[in-house]
Design brief:
By secondary structure, the protein is an alpha/beta fold. It folds into 2 domains: about 240 residues, 3-Layer(aba) Sandwich (Rossmann fold), CATH 3.40.50; about 240 residues, 3-Layer(aba) Sandwich (Rossmann fold), CATH 3.40.50. Helix content is about 35%, strand content about 25%. It contains 18 helices and 22 strands. A 6-stranded mixed β-sheet has the order 6-7-8-3-9-10, sandwiched between helices. A hairpin with a 2-residue loop joins strand 21 and strand 22. Helix 14 packs across helix 15. It is globular, with a radius of gyration of 24 Å.
């Protein structure tokens, strides 16, 4: 414990334990948070970060341990009780009602009312404007939240917390879907909230952000607190090693593979205003990164290649053969697999088990006479569970209960079982920890060594420069440049093309 923690902290969680069937999620975890500071909580997926925050937010009761605010012991039985005590949690998936306005969402469940018991719409709008003014932003209070950008929705969540005098603000992966400019604006607002005396717990897998925004760091591993440090006492290397519990000699284990002839060739692909005359190719054994700012048209491009959306024009060829891809089924049968950007909404059926998700694109291979051969499915799933180091209690565990990194591995497993020759990775490491990232990077190396071709979309320039053989940059639906000598490339060079 740091010397400065000798004074009574704003928040103290001591010896917190939490178990679920077959899983010990928290093992005597302790942390402290002071007013006016940002505490980063770091750890691999499954380390216990989200569970700990749900205990703090009243979503999960702790099995043991204490929670104190300003030295007073609290026991939250619901999120409402936590909110009343000044705790607000902004989850990665926002809790906003799309059809309600910004002001209606801010006061949802705790509406301002007139003496007659009616909702005081005028007062809610006035106070919402005051909250946005406090944050230094301009958002129309009467606009439905479905019409707001992701960053604006996030600011509505922050305003919602401030509306009820939150003193402890938890932010879980707040920058996952934000542009560089939006991240800078968020950090400015966080700085202002610190000046106003709020204590902020910040969870992120983007380690560069931690050095920018955090004052202290608490590390979790396997449900335990394994140390804390001031930000000045850390380097990126030591931060990674404390998270994963071992030394990572190379964050990006890129292996050089002899690149063969072009396998996937896309010519003059067009779709409305989103994709404008895109041409690119990927060779055998090659990783091509498709990058650019959010909204550049990267995801729209790969959805056209995969047949998830209809193209207006253009040609797609695989191994010299022209493909008539009209649906994902056509792409899968041709040997193309897509790991979608949003694994929860598009890559997985969260209510189904891990093994059932694994089997979905492979039913034709694993069935005889219209009946699924469960033994074959289980054998293959066990093989990929071991190969990819997927952590789960049993194959029947609901995939929605797995950590983000393990969910991503289940998505990857089903495409590997399909023996796809071209794999499209759309933001493959978004929201997963450095240890799981390393495993996915290593697997990508193995795949290209086998002669497979990978098209990787990524917003993390360090990842792009660390893993790609070539870089194709997009801006407003067009290719603005290609970088072939990746070893000599810089992030500034990529950004120049991304804003061209």
């Amino acid at each position: 414990m740091l010397e400065s923690d000798s004074v009574v902290p704003l928040l103290a969680m001591r010896g917190v334990e939490k178990s679920f069937p077959g899983v010990k999620a928290l093992r005597g975890v302790s942390l402290t948070l002071r007013a006016g500071e940002v505490l980063a909580v770091l750890g691999e997926n499954g380390a216990g970060k989200s569970t700990l925050m749900k205990v703090l937010g009243g979503a999960h009761p702790a099995d043991a341990g204490t929670l104190e605010i300003d030295g007073h012991v609290m026991a939250f039985r619901s999120p409402r009780e936590a909110s009343a005590a000044g705790v607000a949690v902004i989850y990665q998936e926002f809790n906003l009602v799309p059809g309600l306005t910004a002001s209606e969402n801010i006061f949802l469940g705790q509406e301002l009312t007139t003496r007659g018991g009616l909702i005081d719409i005028a007062s809610e709008r006035r106070k919402a404007r005051e909250l946005f003014q406090r944050l230094g932003i301009e958002i129309k209070v009467d606009i439905p939240c479905r019409l707001l950008t992701t960053s604006q929705q996030q600011l509505v969540e922050i305003a919602k917390a401030l509306a009820f005098d939150a003193r402890i603000l938890v932010m879980d992966e707040p920058t996952a879907a934000l542009t560089t400019r939006e991240v800078e604006n968020l950090f400015k607002i966080i700085g202002e909230l610190k000046q106003q005396g709020l204590g902020i717990i910040y969870i992120s897998h983007r380690l560069d952000e931690i050095f920018t925004i955090a004052d202290r760091v608490t590390f979790l591993r396997d449900g335990e607190n394994v140390g804390e440090s001031t930000i000045e006492g850390l380097t990126r290397k030591t931060m990674i090693e404390r998270m994963v519990g071992r030394e990572l000699k190379d964050e990006f284990p890129k292996r050089q593979v002899a690149i063969g002839q072009p396998r996937l060739v896309v010519k003059n692909l067009c779709s409305g205003l989103k994709v404008k005359n895109i041409s690119l190719h990927i060779g055998r054994g090659e990783i091509v990164a498709l990058t650019g700012l959010v909204g550049a048209g990267r995801t729209e491009t790969v959805r056209l290649i995969f047949g998830a959306d209809n193209r207006d024009s253009g040609e797609i060829r695989l191994d010299g053969k022209s493909l008539n891809i009209r649906s994902p089924r056509d792409a899968i049968e041709a040997g193309i697999g897509l790991l979608t950007e949003d694994r929860k909404l598009q890559g997985l059926v969260l209510g189904m088990s891990a093994i059932d998700n694994f089997g979905l694109p492979n039913l034709d291979r694993m069935s005889r006479n219209g009946f699924l051969q469960k033994r074959i499915e289980r054998q293959e799933f066990q093989h990929y569970t071991s190969a990819l180091k997927i952590k789960l209690s049993n194959p029947e565990q609901r995939v929605g209960h797995l950590s983000g990194g393990n969910q991503q591995k289940v998505v990857l497993a089903k495409w590997l079982a399909r023996h796809c020759e071209v794999l499209i990775f759309d933001e493959p490491t978004r929201g997963i920890d450095v240890g799981a990232k390393f495993e996915i990077y290593s697997l990508m190396n193995e795949l290209v060594a086998q002669g497979k071709s990978i098209l990787m979309i990524s917003s993390e320039l360090s990842e792009v420069l660390g893993m790609a053989d070539r870089i194709v940059v997009m801006h407003e639906g067009r290719v603005t440049g290609e970088i072939q000598d990746v070893r000599r490339a810089t992030q500034e060079q990529v950004m120049e093309l991304a804003v061209a």
